[in-house]
Design a protein that fits this description.
By secondary structure, the protein is an alpha/beta fold. It has one domain: Spore Coat Polysaccharide Biosynthesis Protein SpsA, Chain A (Alpha-Beta Complex). 45% of the residues lie in helices and 16% in strands. It contains ten helices and nine strands. The strands form two sheets. Strands 3-2-1-4-7-5-8 form a seven-stranded mixed β-sheet, with helices on both faces. It has a two-stranded parallel ribbon with strand order 6-9. Strand 2, helix 2 and strand 3 form a beta-alpha-beta unit. It starts with 12 loop residues before the first strand and ends with a helix.
């Protein structure tokens, strides 16, 4: 009996989730993605979810596989490399990235597709976030970022762009152990300026951001982090690897 080769349609959007020991919080993100997937399907769109697993020692890859995610195993302990590895296997014409501890809005994929389909003047963007809880320290930290967000139109949450533009800027910079997300958006913004395109903040579909770093390091930890990073970058003092490990690569989970 002859075997038929069936070509499956490409997804509209590929969502990449970098993950390290995210068995506790990943399920709630995947629940929110499933709701958003169903909403997107009603308008004819489809998504694929790629979990780029970065040497997890818990059940992260098993949980993700059970939920129908494509799993990419990445041994290099570098968040930029993890994001790039997910993008490399993606089949969608639009790439999107979200952290494993977030929760997305149900209209996320619909809004992203509309922005990029009807916005020739838009190169990409992000949804922005609202925080799962607030305190004086968290609110002050958020307020510190607001002028930068307003001036640059850069944001966090679900970051998105077209596949060809991701390739043109070279993806995420794997020379950076942290701050790669900011550098990526700066590169997109620069490319967009050359074409008279801009970044778009899709704030009607803000993701919910985890505050677990505030839970772990304290309500005002961010200002200490800024001091350490600034001291290392400007004065070449302090250990960049130690900073990266403490806040990004060796969390207590």
């Amino acid at each position: 009996m002859a075997t038929m080769n069936v070509t499956l349609p490409s997804p509209s959007i590929s969502l990449v989730i970098p993950a390290y020991n995210e068995a506790v919080l990943l399920p709630r993100l995947l629940d929110s993605i499933e709701i958003a997937r169903q909403v997107f399907a009603e308008s004819g769109g489809s998504i694929e979810v790629i979990v780029a697993d970065n040497c997890s020692t818990d059940d992260t890859p098993t949980l993700a596989a059970e939920r129908g995610c494509q799993i990419v195993s990445v041994e290099q302990r570098c968040i930029a490399a993890v994001r790039n590895a997910g993008a490399e296997v993606a089949g969608g014409s639009i790439l999107a990235f979200v952290d494993a501890d977030a929760v997305i809005h149900k209209e996320t994929f619909v809004q992203i597709a509309q922005i990029l389909a009807h916005g020739s003047g838009v190169i990409g963007g992000a949804t922005g976030v609202r925080l799962e809880r607030l305190s004086s320290g968290i609110a002050f930290t958020y307020a510190l970022h607001w002028p930068f967000l307003w001036l640059t139109k850069m944001d966090t949450g679900v970051v998105f762009c077209r596949r060809e533009d991701f390739a043109e800027v070279g993806g995420y910079d794997e020379r950076q152990k942290f701050g790669e997300d900011v550098s990526f958006l700066l590169a997109l913004r620069k490319l967009g300026k050359q074409r008279r395109q801009c970044l778009r903040r899709a704030t009607s579909v803000k993701a919910v951001a985890s505050t677990r770093k505030f839970d772990e390091y304290g309500e005002w930890y961010y200002f200490g982090l800024l001091w350490r990073v600034g001291r290392h970058m400007l004065l070449k003092r302090g250990d960049g690897e130690e900073i990266a490990d403490r806040y990004w690569y060796k969390p207590r989970r």
